[in-house]
Amino acid sequence: MGDVAVGEHRPPLCVEGMISGAESYCAKHGLRFTDSRRRVLELLLEAPKAVGAYELLEQLRREKRGAQPPAVYRALDFLVAHGFVHKIDRLSAFVACAHPHEDHLPVFMVCNRCESVTELCSSQPTDFLDAAAREVGFLLEETVVEAFGICTRCKEAKQPA
């Protein structure tokens, strides 16, 4: 099982490499990797935590890009649909996928204090759901697991010296 935390809790993702991979994927599949989509992905790759759509919008406006909410949401929808980004539902925020276009079932460990997100990539955490679904004749099509707790850094910061 591989895991990659978002932000300062993880080794930094190679922004250039991830952007290059996104460009290649889009070219191969006849998709447009617009400047807006590129910049939103860059911001998520550089972010120290999961980022909400309006935080992205504010950053784009600070950069004088004249972004409007629909443009940010369209970029996010595209990036999620094509596996570059994940949405953390409970936070209503987004993180760059650490393993885009690899066959994986992401499980997210979210820190309640700093909102860092660790993406675990394994089928094992959801095996019990597959078994339970089969028992009742249900076919799982998508599984998203978000677990909340305290990350190591926050836990250690609260301990007395």
What does this entry look like structurally?
This protein is of the alpha+beta class and 161 residues long. It has one domain (2-158): Arc Repressor Mutant, subunit A (Orthogonal Bundle), CATH 1.10.10.10. 42% of the residues lie in helices and 17% in strands. It has six helices and six strands; from the N terminus they run βααααββββαβα. A hairpin with a 4-residue loop joins strand 2 (85-88) and strand 3 (93-96). Helix 3 (53-62) crosses helix 4 (69-81). Mean pLDDT is 84; it is low at 1-5 and 7-11.
Offer a few descriptive terms.
161 residues, alpha+beta, Arc Repressor Mutant, subunit A, four-stranded mixed sheet, two-stranded antiparallel ribbon, 6 helices, globular, disordered N terminus
Overall 3D form: globular
Q: Proportion of β residues?
A: 15-25%
Strand order of the largest sheet: 1-5-4-6
Number of DSSP helical runs = 6
Structural class computed from helices and strand pairing? alpha+beta
Number of strands: 6
At the first level of CATH, the class is: Mainly Alpha
Residues in helices, as a percent range: 40-55%
Low-confidence stretches: 1-5, 7-11
Report Rg. Answer: 17 Å
Overall tally of structural domains = 1
Give the helices and strands as they follow along the chain: EHHHHEEEEHEH
Distance between the termini: 33 Å
Q: Please give the largest β-sheet.
A: 4 strands, mixed
The pLDDT mean sits at 84
* Annotated CATH architecture: Orthogonal Bundle
Can you tell me the CATH topology?
Answer: Arc Repressor Mutant, subunit A
